[in-house]
Design brief:
About 75% of the residues lie in helices and about 0% in strands. It is mostly helical.
Length: about 525
């Protein structure tokens, strides 16, 4: 019995030792796991400093300035794209080498950014096709011809701004407005002797005013919907800043139209004679813009609208502009195809008109599309590395009162336009970043949605590497920095937003309940 008991005791001791040893091993594994988890958490929580975060932005600005000085207007043909890719690589290098951000995070952010503008890239290609088809078919020349009869040079700039505002309001699209009626007005302005910057500034000012307050606008819907604000409540509240801004812009354009020396009547007559001699000018061609307007009014998707409008223009070209098509190529089919996708040149008796009617079709948009993709890579790299979040968090610190809060939002939105190069991304990020701050301080969400549009939507065409800036510069054939000083509505709107906030007009602040 005694031996048995000793055996049992030994087994118990051994079992206890085994259990203790297992516990010790498990404890060691748990400690190691905890240590690994802590290291992973520490790496995830590591954020770049503000100074480090500004480094890629500073490098981008320096390289773009050097690129534009070296290449001039040809910088969009590849040099600017290489600059964006190089700065993106620099951002990734900092993120992976210093901030321990895995490559998969960068890859995911860049892919997400590029996919977010995929529909815009398709629209850009179709806008190139539309521009070529509308020009060769005689639609744009017809609009220019009749427009020069109607619009007097003394009121041209103000009329241009108003026309684009009305068209954009009805269509909800600044891009479509500029790509259609904008091109025609650009031709009229050049024929009347106005500088490209003035005409493009009037076109863009009007187009973005209409886009901003149109219930059909994607940016208007996005800014209000992402913050849970009623669409029409958002639009009514925006009128408090947009109406004074467009009024000031119209006054400037009206005064400029009365003071700027325009082309002599004989030169205008020569331009119109060249138009009439090169193209078959007929009211029947107005069917194309009218049909396009009907499609837009019926809320047909933009891609479908632009595609159908292009097809209709090609059909009209085959009927009314057979001589012009024959100059491009003896085969009508081949000439029609070339007007949509490639470069076309038609000889006229007026050198300025010859340059105006030369088109590049879909091929003319490839540099812009390439640039947009590279810009999205830079935006994705900044987001994944955490540098974008680090910079935008700085703006929150300056929110002391209503004016400083709105000013911080405006500065943040403008910065995001610079950093992400896309207005849609900037609208969403600005809303997400400040929504909780506005709510905690008792301000209505519509104040944030209005300020976001004042800061982001209207300033996007003023940035050379932003999707809007690149697009409008390509469509109008006017460099962004050339028309920037004349986009008075776009320049005044952010300032007006801060001014209205400073005087506190129609800004309602709800009492905030502080518990305990």
């Amino acid at each position: 019995m005694e031996n048995n008991n000793n055996g049992i005791n030994c087994e118990c001791v051994n079992a206890e030792k085994s259990v203790n040893a297992e516990k010790f091993v498990n404890a060691g594994n748990a400690a190691k796991a905890a240590k690994a988890k802590h290291a992973a958490t520490a790496h995830l929580k590591k954020r770049p400093s503000a100074l480090l975060s500004f480094t890629p932005i500073a490098l981008l600005v320096i390289m773009l300035v050097a690129t534009i000085r070296a290449f001039g207007s040809d910088s969009l043909a590849g040099a600017s794209q290489v600059t964006l890719i190089a700065v993106s690589a620099f951002c990734v290098l900092i993120g992976m080498g210093y901030l321990n951000v895995p490559w998969s995070s960068f890859e995911k952010a860049i892919t997400k950014n590029v996919s977010s503008v995929s529909s815009a890239l398709i629209i850009l290609l179709l806008i190139g096709a539309l521009g070529g088809a509308w020009m060769v078919s005689g639609v744009v020349p017809t609009l220019i011809y009749y427009g020069m009869h109607i619009i007097h040079p003394s009121v041209f700039l103000a009329s241009t701004c108003l026309i684009c505002a009305l068209v954009s309001l009805m269509t909800g699209s600044s891009w479509t407005t500029i790509a259609t009626i904008g091109i025609a007005l650009m031709g009229i302005g050049r024929a009347q002797g106005f500088a490209d910057g003035w005409v493009a500034g009037a076109i863009i000012s009007g187009a973005y005013f209409g886009d901003k307050i149109s219930p059909l606008s994607e940016t208007t819907t996005l800014a209000s919907g992402s913050l849970g604000v009623s669409l029409f409540s958002h639009i009514r509240y925006m009128l408090l800043t947009t109406v004074p801004s467009i009024t000031l812009a119209l006054i400037i354009f009206a005064v400029a139209g009365l003071t700027i020396d325009t082309t002599e009547t004989q030169e205008v007559a020569s331009f119109m004679a060249a138009l009439d001699g090169r193209f078959n000018i007929t009211p029947w061609l107005l069917i194309v813009p009218v049909a396009t307007g009907v499609l837009i009014a019926r809320k047909t998707p933009p891609i479908v609208t632009i595609f159908l409008s292009t097809l209709l223009a090609v059909a009209c070209g085959l009927v009314f502009q057979r001589e012009a098509l024959a100059e491009i190529d003896p085969s009508m089919f081949k000439a029609a195809m070339m007007s949509v996708y490639g470069e076309t040149t038609l000889s006229t008796s007026n050198q300025m008109l010859t340059e105006l009617v030369s088109t590049r079709g879909m091929a003319g948009m490839t540099d812009t599309i390439w640039l947009i993709i590279c810009a999205m890579c830079f935006g994705g790299a900044m987001t994944a590395s955490g540098m974008l979040g680090s910079i935008t968090s700085l703006f929150v610190r300056f929110m002391k009162n209503t004016a400083s809060m709105v000013a911080s939002t405006v500065c943040s939105g403008l910065f995001l336009n610079l950093a992400t190069a896309d207005q849609y991304i900037s609208i969403i990020l600005t809303g997400n970043m400040f929504s909780n701050v506005y709510a905690k301080k008792g301000y209505e969400s519509r104040l944030l949605s209005r300020t976001t549009e004042d800061a982001v939507t209207v300033t996007s065409p003023l940035i050379p590497w932003n999707t809007c800036g690149m697009t409008q510069a390509t469509i109008l054939s006017v460099p962004t920095l050339t028309y920037l000083p004349y986009c008075f509505f776009n320049l005044i709107s952010p300032v007006m937003s801060i001014f209205i906030a400073a005087i506190g007009y129609k800004i309602i602040k709800k009492p905030v309940n502080n518990p305990g």
